[in-house]
Design a protein that fits this description.
Keywords: Cell membrane, Glycosyltransferase, Lipopolysaccharide biosynthesis, Membrane, Transferase, Transmembrane, Transmembrane helix
Organism: Algoriphagus oliviformis
Protein name: Glycosyltransferase
InterPro entries: Glyco_trans_2-like (IPR001173), Glycosyltransferase_2 (IPR050256), Nucleotide-diphossugar_trans (IPR029044)
Strand content: 15-25%
Largest sheet: 7 strands, mixed
Distance between the termini: 20 Å
CATH topology of the largest domain: Spore Coat Polysaccharide Biosynthesis Protein SpsA, Chain A
Helix content: 40-55%
Order of helices and strands: EHEEHEHEHEHHEHHHH
Length: 312
């Protein structure tokens, strides 16, 4: 299959945001004309919207639009994964961009990301220097990044908005982790990247679909990408508790046998408390080890080999 040559291939997922997508594409087309960009290929992934095609027009002189509709609602991250796989199979782009359709990823920042990527010859992700959500959302977002760091040992300071090198796309679309979380999968791939500070834009129409529930799901899917690291850390943590409990029992028994300073009854309760802690740690270690070995024995599905099954 011959691939269509494109300088920039842009993947834009959307669900019931046709009005926003219209405005976004209008602005990208205008900016492409201003910066004398010949053609930008856009893969617009419709994540099973109520309307099959709500775009008013598809005639832009600087944009080549391809709309792919999913057979069911798969969620934001899997829509991105399918869009990237489609771009890999149908376009030979030097650069691959990913951005939302609602306007919170600003079109002018897309070109800033692209310019920095070309200068550095490296993938670039947008880092939000200012967020417009409420305090509760910001607190949970900070908590998500903290838990992600504790569980994976990696710091994540970026989301989906990015421009990556086209020759790195092959590694991503063959990575099963791409199904769960695009930025976390990229982070785990160990592909070189840099970040660019950007501000969060304002939605063109409607309201944001990201809420606390969506954020928790997004956070858990990101941590799931590093499941092997999380399981390993849980096993080590459980072993540390087991050793601490055994040490505590040994100290209590030694004091009871070798000294006269023991208070009647305290040794029994102390040993019982340490024994309960020991038993719980053993259960956690056993089940974590079982899950770890089970996951290692299963061959996960590569997105590039399965994505066509979800395109209508």
């Amino acid at each position: 299959m011959s691939l269509e040559k494109s300088r920039l291939t842009l993947v834009v997922p959307q669900h019931n945001d046709w009005e926003c997508a219209q405005v976004l594409l209008d602005q990208i087309n205008e900016l492409a004309d201003r910066f004398s960009v010949d053609k930008i290929s856009v893969v617009l992934v419709d994540d099973f919207s109520d309307q099959i095609n709500g775009l008013i027009e598809l005639d832009w002189d600087r944009l080549d639009i391809k709309i792919i509709r999913l057979v069911q609602n798969l969620g934001h991250q899997r829509a991105i994964a399918i869009g990237l796989c489609y771009a890999y199979d149908h376009y030979d782009g030097d650069w691959i961009g990913v951005m939302d359709a609602d306007g919170e990823d600003r079109p002018e920042d897309l070109f800033k990301l692209w310019n920095q990527a070309k200068k550095q010859s490296a993938s670039v992700f947008a880092h939000r220097n200012k967020r417009s959500e409420g305090m509760l959302f910001k607190l949970f977002y900070w908590l998500y990044k903290f838990v992600f760091w504790i569980c994976s040992g990696k710091r994540i300071s970026f989301g989906n908005f990015s421009v990556i090198r086209g020759d790195r796309l092959k590694a991503l679309v063959h990575d099963p982790n791409l199904w769960n979380n695009y930025p976390a999968a990229f982070l785990k791939s160990k592909i070189g990247y840099s970040t660019l500070s950007t501000s969060r834009g304002v939605r063109y129409h409607g309201y944001s679909k990201m809420n606390l529930t969506s954020l928790v799901i997004h956070g858990l899917s990101g941590v799931a990408v590093f499941a092997d690291v999380v399981n390993t850390r849980m096993i080590i943590f459980s072993l540390a508790i087991i050793l601490s409990a055994l040490l505590g029992i040994s100290i209590v028994v030694s004091i009871k046998i070798l000294t006269d300073s023991a208070i009647p009854g305290w040794a029994t309760y102390s040993v019982l408390a340490f024994a309960i802690l020991l038993f719980q740690a053993l259960i956690i270690a056993f089940f974590t080890l079982f899950i770890f070995l089970s996951n290692r024995s299963v061959m996960a599905v590569q997105p590039v080999k399965a994505y066509v099954n979800y395109i209508d």
